[in-house]
Amino acid sequence: MNTSFWKSGHAPTLFAAFLYFDLSFMVWYVLGPLAVQIATDLDLTAQQRGLMVATPILAGAVLRLLMGFLADRLSPKSAGLIGQIIVIVALFCAWQIGISSYEHALLLGLFLGFAGAAFAVALPLASQWYPPQHQGKAMGIAGAGNSGTVLAALFAPGLAALFGWQNVFGWALIPLLATLLIFALLAKNAPERPKPKALADYLKALGDRDSWWFMFFYSVTFGGFIGLASALPGYFNDQYGLSPVTAGYYTAACVCAGSLMRPLGGALADRIGGIRSLLMMYTLASLSIAAVGFNLESSAAALTLFVTAMLGLGAGNGAVFQLVPQRFRKEIGVMTGLIGMAGGIGGFLLAAGLGTIKQQTGDYQLGLWLFASLGVLAWFGLYGVKLRWRTTWGSAAVTAARV
């Protein structure tokens, strides 16, 4: 990365945005790795466990619009400080008062949604400092914060085994408070910020049929990534009898694969075209999920297939956002919010749906095959719009990017 990139923006703000995003995603996802221990202590059914881990995903999807509104009307830094304080207070209450019922767990999940909404703050905070030629690098660095899910999967089950899962919320406060201090000291709002978006802008964007296609495509890729990440600890425990700690390690491998592939997927899309890349990723993910749905006897084989699927979904996330700026150059802020919300809703439906199907049928087979079928539908949908996209806004006469 050349020196002109670092001189063109504000590196301390970029670092603060990454750190805020990373730690926020860590706590947004924390109920997933703790799901087995929480469900055991609170005597939850598979359906209740699925809804518990899915609640922060749905809350985060909806709250992205609120946090985006606050970032527009106040400033990205102010919105980030407000969001972090709300999450810290919620975790402190969960640690000190305790989570003693299913309803308490759902309530905590709602407040953790503010952590999931960090997407709507961290990316604009970083993006507004950098010129167009460096937007990809800046967004890639700030967006790498979704790797925080790996931290939760790696460490939360082990800490719960040592100190009890309620105390994990207390342990999480240490890095969160440090991040709040660093964010307050280092982050600065860009001197020139775009005009705040009105509600009418969102409604206008929804009137374009391509916006719905992108929302569907991202609900499968990102929804698949975060939905599986939340459901896999319970899956590995139910299906193979793995301990919560071992299930956490298995899940961390899957989440790490998906997180690392997001920027690489964007680079691949730049090289071969976003449509071709996304078609390949839907194929890879759908085949892998369909195969694991056959209830394989080997946990190692299932892990290999889930890692492969997450590689495809992670790269698919990058491919979607390689295409979006080509189609919606002037509406990128609005579309980022809407598409991000759709991804979260997809994740909620997958995580909650897998739990419900497990409860009703006794295993995950039908749920996994239904998700694989969604990937197939997305493939055909994308193939159906390919010619129109490549001959209109994606043609060589309109954009230099490969579509």
From TrEMBL:
GO terms for cellular component: plasma membrane. SUPFAM superfamilies: MFS general substrate transporter (SSF103473). Pfam families: MFS_1 (PF07690). It is a multi-pass membrane protein. PROSITE patterns: MFS. This is Nitrate/nitrite transporter. One of its GO terms (molecular function) is nitrate transmembrane transporter activity.
